[in-house]
Amino acid sequence: MTAAPTPVDASLHTPVIAWFETHARDLPWRRPEAGPWGVLVSEFMLQQTPVSRVLPVYEQWLARWPRPADLAAEPPGEAVRAWGRLGYPRRALRLHAAASAITELHGDEVPSDHAELLALPGVGEYTAAAVASFAYGQRHAVLDTNVRRVFARAVSGAQYPPNATTAAERKLARELLPRSEPTAARWAAATMELGALVCTARTPDCARCPIAARCAWRAAGSPAHDGPPRRGQTYAGTDRQVRGKLLAVLREALEPVPQRTLDAVWDEPVQRARALDGLVADGLVEPLPDGLYRLPLT
Q1: Is pTM beyond 0.85 here?
Q2: d(CA 171, CA 277)
Q3: What is the CATH code for 239-294?
Q4: Hey, which of 106, 246, 272, 289 has its CA 20 to 30 A from 182?
Q5: Where are the domains of the chain?
Q6: Homologous superfamily of 31-123
Q7: Model pLDDT for residues 23-49, shown as the tens digit of each residue
């Protein structure tokens, strides 16, 4: 049984949730009509990808595949094609695999049980907790980057959380959970939104923060980060960029693509070959006889 939060911790709930009720963005996966499938799709798409890029793809995806069985009936390559330029396209394959499992094992209904969610392909601890909380109103600690940053500042007094989620962070998140299931689910969404809109990584807007007066980091004088260097993300010139260019050609093609067409997208042959080999190994590209390539059919 999770321990009850201390009175100090409990004092954070009301202002954060009240702020959320007023300032939360109207996002399609938060609307009742989205349902658990819409929540699951959004969680896959939002991993390491901003909302502005996800919105148009999400809406097209749900219009085409309003149920898991609709997606499962299509070849996995169609999921990769529809994924477009969201990045990290293996997520598309995993979402297709999750849709297939939901169709076969759960009667085309996204399971509400946390353990069953966790057993779905591509669903980790965060996604299982998020779907159980946001789709079904359950009481789970939902720890994404935004929430971890809010807790690091407001409670732990650090500018940034550790590079990787720690056991201490998970324990703190459980201790901060409201006892009521509906309130806990609202708290999860509210802390995530607070981190996304106010307690941002580079330019936190403390004047707008509903818990600025309770923030341990501000009380300590907003000390600069003194831990390990934070991981930055680069793209230009990386294998990720080459993979994206190769996939873009295959997404646009209606027929298998010859090697020479793929060779034209990147001048450096060793890196190009490595990127293509990686796409094949990841199941994102299917090689055919005579040097042809296509998105996967199975």
Answers
A1: yes
A2: 41
A3: 1.10.10
A4: 106
A5: 31-123, 239-294
A6: Hypothetical protein; domain 2 (1.10.340.30)
A7: 999 999 999 999 999 999 999 999 989
